[in-house]
Design brief:
Layout: E1 5-6, H1 27-40, E2 45-47, E3 57-61, H2 73-80, E4 83-105, E5 108-126, E6 132-138, H3 139-152, H4 163-177, E7 187-188
Parallel strand pairs: 1-7
Antiparallel strand pairs: 2-3, 3-4, 4-5, 5-6
Length: 196
């Protein structure tokens, strides 16, 4: 089932997500719905707060980045085949040089800005079967994970841009809060046109 994506300004996007257990109600269905919602909106990642749930869960499928012919063949292949569910994730390390990449967010349509993030991460998480894993990722995969991880910490990519850029996107963010944007996927807005 395709879920509505919560728009910028909704308080759920600012909440630190709660850990969940295997007994979380209808977890498998929620994960399936999140993938379906993400694909419907042409996203590469989606966190539970973006569908209104303040829990530590996000899904990622970087396959669209694997189509970038400017990337080395090996990286294209990795990106094409990276699909993962992260439950109760905990960032252990962010290291290496910071590098910029133009990011967007399904909860903040029509806004894209360069964000600088570390090139390598070490993260601990549980998969859909609640097996605990600790893994190291780098490049675009690390970046997508960092972006989604921020969501479960109540952080948005617009928090990481310069004060000048924040001023420049202020009007666009207000339009999202007021429900005056029309992306080609279902959204739930925080402002006056709630629930549209």
């Amino acid at each position: 089932m395709i879920l509505p994506i919560v728009g910028y300004g909704d308080p759920v996007l600012r909440k630190k997500g709660q850990e969940i257990s295997e007994s979380y109600p209808e977890l498998k269905q929620l994960v399936a719905d999140m993938y379906e919602t993400m694909y419907n909106a042409y996203g590469v990642g989606l966190a539970a707060p973006q569908v209104g749930l303040p829990i530590r869960l996000f899904v990622i499928d970087t396959a669209p980045f694997g189509e970038d012919e400017d990337l080395p063949a090996q990286e294209q292949e990795m990106l094409k085949n990276f699909k993962r569910t992260f439950i109760n994730a905990k960032m252990l390390k962010e290291e290496g040089e910071e590098w910029g990449f133009n990011e967007g967010c399904l909860s903040i349509p029509e806004v894209r800005e360069d964000v600088y993030r570390n090139e390598q991460i070490t993260i601990e998480y549980q998969d859909e079967d609640f097996n605990t894993k600790t893994e190291v990722f780098d490049g675009l995969i690390a970046r997508v994970i960092q972006h989604e991880y921020d969501h479960i910490e109540g952080i948005l990519f617009t928090d990481k841009i310069s004060p000048l850029k924040k001023q420049l996107v202020k009007g666009k963010l207000q339009k999202i809060m007021d429900g005056k944007v029309r992306p080609d996927y279902r959204m739930k807005f925080a402002g006056p046109k709630k629930g549209r």
